[in-house]
Here is the input.
Amino acid sequence: QVQLVESGGGSVQAEGSLRLSCAASGRTFNPLFMGWFRQAPGKDREFVAAIRRSSGATYYGDSVKGRFTISRDNAVNTMYLQMNSLKPEDTAVYYCAARSDYFMSYSYLDYRYWGQGTQVTVSS
Here is the structure.
């Protein structure tokens, strides 16, 4: 059984920073990609960032490029999302996800494993 557990969400003012963590566990857990998605009320789930666990190659959504940084520590099966210069439009539930297929995907439909989500609220 694979488990993904997010932490680090909260409330912050615009231009502030937050760091999200995603701890993964499971005896057979070995995904090629891990990523972050977010969903605001009434909107579709949006790709934020992803990382290839072996090489560390990173991928970002256009709305967060230059402000967010994804990283991982494979030794402890944990992924991070450093979010800087936060804006009110970043307000959403942020989900950690994992994918075992070889090719990178920006679609939430292609990620098999999901965390429960953590709320991020940015006030102006």
